[in-house]
Amino acid sequence: MKMKNTFAAVLLLLTFSVLAQTPERWDLPLDPRDWKLVAEKREGRLTERVYVAPGESEYFWNEKIVVGHQRLAFSTDDYMTGFLEYVDGNCRPYKMKPLEQSEAEVFVQWDGDCRITGPQFEYRRVLVAKDGVHVFAFAAKTNRLSEAKRQAWLEILRSARLK
Question: What's the pLDDT tens digit per position in 81-123?
């Protein structure tokens, strides 16, 4: 019996290890900086990974990338409802503008004064696939965002595809 429990525990640990090392599904041409994973948030069916530029952290950043996946989600509304509630509760005042919208995809830009991180600008793309809803976002502190950088990231997010 002890052997079975030990085997089950090892199998469970290996499963969590594999989940933590799951490769990203987005195929995108990032800039050459060595982006660093600083947070992985798992809440219910949603998993989000937060990457920042070298020398920055989860709460002290100038630029960040968020990559997410919501299992058992079948529409962009499944994800966007919770996201809009988060922004409304944490980043007031804010402005949101849809750039593209269809049944299978939503692409928005928004900026607001967020409670923890201060004024920020973000592009967020949400795409429905067979395995759920996938999210890719780029955010920058408003005072650190040039028009050239904003346009470059707009193109990166527009050209990103799921693998």
Answer: 999 999 999 999 999 999 999 999 999 999 999 998 899 999 9
- The side-by-side arrangement of strands in the sheet containing 94-101 is 36-43, 46-52, 63-70, 132-141, 118-129, 105-114, 94-101
Q: How far apart are CA 86 and CA 84, in angstroms?
A: 5
Task: Quick: pLDDT tens for 31-54.
Answer: 778 899 999 999 999 999 999 998
Both tokens assigned to 61: 């950043």
In a domain, 94, yes or no: yes
Distance of alpha carbon 34 from alpha carbon 45, whole angstroms: 29
Range of the domain at 82: 27-162
Query: Quick check: helix, strand or coil at residue 104?
Result: coil
Q: How far is CA 114 from the centre of its chain?
A: 16
Q: What's the token pair of residue 18?
A: 């594999």
Spatial distance between the Cα atoms of 41 and 87, rounded to a whole number of angstroms? 17
pTM confidence score: 0.81
Q: Is residue 85 part of a domain?
A: yes
Whether 138 maps to a domain, the answer reads: yes
